[in-house]
């Protein structure tokens, strides 16, 4: 089968053996894939958790059809339209754990379905399960114009947040955040953004920040969060190391929590997918929770899709079809 594989010469489309499902695995005939920021690093040979390196089939998000079931797989049957996340997505066939997939709603095509699994699981976990958002609270999403950021704002709004603030350093994308739940959009590269947040919250600060940037905004986040507020760190687009004001952190008694899928067990991931299905799946089926598709590429043009992502001018998801 065709797959996008990292080799000593870089990432390229290659012929590899079709995988065989074992245990609780499902074999998926992939029809569309969503690109994610972590894919750009793995395409250059970087590791993402335990995955990466020479011979790695790249990709982590897909939509398609069940082609075959492992002996212990439950909940789906051959031919079902599904979407999910996991390694080796950029291929004609991929394997998925039966607890790490969603049924693709009948009112979505495969391209639309491929935009959702990573954003839904990541941001439901960050905003609701870990962030503990409550109706009437104020929420700030750092890096809000990314696909997962756009989903985070929508989930916060769905759960009753009274004020949703999104950040983006790009003026065009900042101007679009209101379409996806933002009541206020701020430029996190402008030092005055903290004052804007405090002004919007009666000088108290927000109850919750979901931070995809970290790095240079870490101390500003502390100043923008209310006493006994919460910061959930889900990314490091602004760098992995920075100065940190421990005194301000202590003075504001902020709960600072890091989350990632890279170190989760399969049982932990299954729990997140189950909670999404139980709590917000109706909003997915009704299209209340959805993401824009910036551009669709054929699989043979996957390198062009990555060039488009690395140009960092897109809003929403970049999708590749097979």
From TrEMBL:
It comes from the Bacteria. Pfam families: ADH_N, ADH_zinc_N. The keyword NADP applies. Keywords: NADP. Residues 10-320 form the Enoyl reductase (ER) domain. InterPro entries: ADH-like_C (IPR013149), ADH-like_N (IPR013154), ER (IPR020843), GroES-like_sf (IPR011032), NAD(P)-bd_dom_sf (IPR036291), Zinc-ADH_QOR/CCCR (IPR051603). One of its GO terms (molecular function) is oxidoreductase activity. This is Quinone oxidoreductase. It comes from Bradyrhizobium betae.
């Amino acid at each position: 089968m065709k797959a996008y594989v990292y080799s000593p010469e870089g990432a390229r489309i290659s012929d590899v053996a079709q995988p065989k499902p074992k245990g609780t695995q499902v074999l998926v005939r992939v029809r569309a894939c969503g690109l994610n920021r972590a894919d750009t690093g793995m395409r250059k040979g970087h590791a993402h958790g335990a995955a990466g390196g020479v011979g790695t089939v790249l990709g982590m998000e897909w939509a398609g059809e069940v082609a075959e079931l492992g002996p212990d797989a439950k909940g789906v049957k051959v031919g079902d339209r599904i979407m999910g996340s996991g390694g080796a997505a950029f291929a004609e066939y991929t394997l998925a754990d039966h607890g790490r997939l969603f049924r693709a709603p009948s009112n979505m095509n495969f391209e639309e379905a491929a935009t959702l699994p990573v954003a839904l699981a990541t941001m439901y976990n960050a905003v609701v399960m870990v962030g503990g958002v409550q109706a009437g609270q104020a929420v700030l999403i750092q890096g809000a114009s990314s696909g997962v950021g756009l989903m985070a704002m929508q989930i916060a709004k769905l759960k009753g947040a009274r004020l949703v603030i999104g950040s983006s350093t790009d003026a065009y994308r900042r101007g679009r955040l209101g379409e996806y739940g933002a009541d206020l959009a701020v430029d996190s590269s402008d030092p005055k953004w903290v004052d804007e947040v405090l002004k919007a919250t009666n000088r108290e600060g927000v109850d919750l920040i979901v931070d995809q940037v970290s790095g240079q905004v870490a101390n500003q986040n502390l100043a923008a969060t209310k006493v006994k507020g919460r910061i959930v760190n889900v990314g490091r687009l602004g760098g992995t190391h920075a100065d940190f004001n421990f005194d301000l952190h202590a003075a504001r008694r902020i709960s600072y929590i890091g989350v990632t899928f890279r170190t989760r067990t399969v049982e932990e991931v299954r729990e997140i997918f189950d909670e999404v299905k139980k709590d917000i799946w109706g909003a997915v089926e009704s299209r209340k929770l959805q993401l824009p598709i910036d551009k669709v590429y054929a699989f043979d043009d996957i390198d062009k899709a990555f060039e488009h992502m690395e140009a960092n001018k897109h809003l929403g998801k970049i999708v590749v079809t097979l």
